[in-house]
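Local shape tokens:
==================
===
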Amino acid sequence: MRYQITGKHIDVGEALQTHVKTELGVALDKYSQRPTDANVIFSKSAHEFVCEVVVHLSTGLNASAKAHATEIYAAFDDCVEKMDKQLRRYKRRLKDHHRDRTEPVELLGASSYILASDVESDAEEPETLQPIIVAEMETSIPSLSVGEAVMQMELAGAPVLVFRNEKKDGLNVVYRREDGNIGWIDP
């Protein structure tokens, strides 16, 4: 497994890198047999250290966790504990997913845009109704079943996931509703 351990304005020493590889490796070996790479990012927010971990599994699914603590090792340990909990919750589905799916998840390329928010609260009329594009990025839309999409959304900690439905071959959306349930849009 490949590890990318970086720090934003923080020097990540050899001892911390060794700790990350050991502890994350132990946690991942329990639940997912085939992780391909892990990105670990340490940063500082005021007086706290922040640790973000994203693990890419060979099937195309991603698991992510984020934690804050006053010490850098404690932030990482809390983050690994969150990831461990997520993977434990989905262990059965992950193992069933490996048996059913022999090929990695197919990804469809798409463009992603960030639009400027309308910060003018005055009653002035805008010159045009076209939004201002702030940034343009490339993204991938996975080809998944509805159950896999819900699992991917939960593992990534995302509020919404756009995916291509394997059974109907159309674009679908799953999202977390305000009442805590999961919504599914199938046009």
About this structure: The radius of gyration is 19 Å.
